[in-house]
């Protein structure tokens, strides 16, 4: 414990002899009682001492010229810090009751008459010195206790935060574990179907109808795998802020209507009462991303609504917002889950018999895409069995007239365009070559970057499909070399890559490519891009 400062005693007397006698008497006991003695010759000097020090007791002469003892005592006790200092008046005159009353009213605790009896003085000052020391000790203990309390409070708050962070991390890890398990399940299902269909095609005695059905299964399940990969990549891009919106004025009602028509055409909504009420509302948005939002909200309603249930899709304008609402009569959302439905990897019921599966990232992607558009999405539910409603709000703009599309390019060479495919994956290269040949293209192929540049110099193709991740030299370097050589500078270059971030598109264009396609590439999309680069000849 820190050392306690010695208490101080102040003696105030205008008479030098009396002052010397009292201070000398008190000094005899100072070491024994562990206190210090200070002196003052007037009331003003006493006040200056009180401003500089704390005192255990003040011995104050009553009869002093100028400011007498009563006035001095009153001034001392008017100051908050010195208001509680005990004052013992010393006088040579016998004080009557009125004088005593006056003294007590000004803060006196006692009277001493001169000549002072040493034993009485010692007894009185000993009490006040001991009291001052005890008070100072209690103050220090109180300060230490306060400091300790502050330290414990801070430690408790830190421990509470660590517990909350650990619980949050455990919840996230649990959610990720469940997600990985679900991802494995969702990937194995289409892979199993593809593997079985591929094996069926090779079996002896399989009918032509069986081969056709197997091919359709492979195509459908491959598209399903592509959608899973796209969702994962889109969520990653959205969480890292790497999605760039291709904004344009559009009518949200028209976009939603087109999405609903796709659901009806494919039969995905055949077992439900799908009701639409769509009022026109113009927004500035990315059509592709808004279709993702719409399809994810509708998919969510289909997933959690039993067959025969009702799904209502509405759009309307409200003040400065265009609103999309998807309401269902499905299983509803529990109160404890409702605040977390837009969190990553969160799902409702994940029973094995749920027919449509899912990764639990659709709604999280919806929220992030809505944020990128300057909008917001909310969820409401009356609880289990009460259905749910998801509401999207986007900033409204004034009605826009869409620009007329540019006329398509015509013309081209009279022969079939030639295509060079540079791809290091043997199976992928073989399948792509076969498909392009089936569409009438003259196709040559190369398995690495150096071979691809050499093949381009030999054959001078109209179009080169170049994989970015090539051995030897990568696709970027292939494009740069082809553009640098006058003999191959005019070849139309299309990048085929598994990298689809905005930065990847920038690097592709800076290397000299004309177009950028992300694997897996839909054959219809590929034909459209090749046709745009080198139009097919018009048959006479």
UniProtKB/TrEMBL annotation:
The catalytic activity of this protein is classed by the Enzyme Commission as 2.7.13.3
Where found in the cell?
Cell inner membrane
InterPro entries to which the protein is assigned, alphabetical:
CheY-like_superfamily (IPR011006), HATPase_C_sf (IPR036890), HATPase_dom (IPR003594), His_kinase_dom (IPR005467), HisK_dim/P_dom (IPR003661), HisK_dim/P_sf (IPR036097), Sig_transdc_His_kin-like_C (IPR004358), Sig_transdc_resp-reg_receiver (IPR001789)
The source organism is: Rugamonas aquatica
Protein name per the record: histidine kinase
Tell me the domain of life: Bacteria
Tell me the GO molecular function terms. phosphorelay sensor kinase activity
Response regulatory domain: which residues? 8-129, 418-534
**One term under GO cellular component:** plasma membrane
Would I find Transferase among this entry's keywords? yes
The residue ranges of the Histidine kinase domain are: 182-398
Positions carrying 4-aspartylphosphate: 61, 467
Substrates-to-products reaction catalysed: ATP + protein L-histidine = ADP + protein N-phospho-L-histidine
Decide whether keyword Membrane is in the record.
Answer: no
Q: Which residues form a coiled coil?
A: 135-172
What's the main place this protein lives?
membrane
Q: Which Pfam families match?
A: HATPase_c, HisKA, Response_reg
Q: What are the entry keywords?
A: Coiled coil, Kinase, Phosphoprotein, Transferase
Q: How does it sit in the membrane?
A: Multi-pass membrane protein
